[in-house]
Amino acid sequence: SLYHVQPPLRSTADRDGLREAVKAGVISAISSHHQPHEADAKLAPFGETEPGISSAEILLPLAMTLVDDGLLDLPTLLARLTSGPAAALQLSAGRLQAGQPADLVLFDPHSSTLVGESWYSKGRNCPFMGHCLPGSVRYTLVDGHISYQA
Fold first, then answer.
1. pTM (two decimals)
2. Contacts from 126-129 at CB under 8 Å and sequence distance 24+?
């Protein structure tokens, strides 16, 4: 029940197909549907629990595995995480421009993140707890103001 999500988790073949679609550019936007829950929401039998997992904190490190695995180069990955979702939603966001809000993430692509070592989400139901993922977010700025600092 910890990993009850909608849509449900799929097979390895499905995952591999999605990764190939991202590599080929068929999928041009990568995002997170962060839906954390308190521990009590996941205690019932599988079908009776609330769907969702905590994922916002690991979106960038998890996406960086696509670079580590050679599927994307770093600039392409960053476009899929920024301008790709903005374009899909027809938003004037996802890029740095004079006069636009400075919403950005500063990260170290050469370091790593131990998932769960420092955790801010109220939900702890994440299948990657304890895993070491590439990249480490150092700062997040929203409208030019620091909203997170490692």
1. 0.87
2. 126/53, 126/54, 126/55, 126/58, 127/2, 127/3, 127/53, 128/58, 128/62
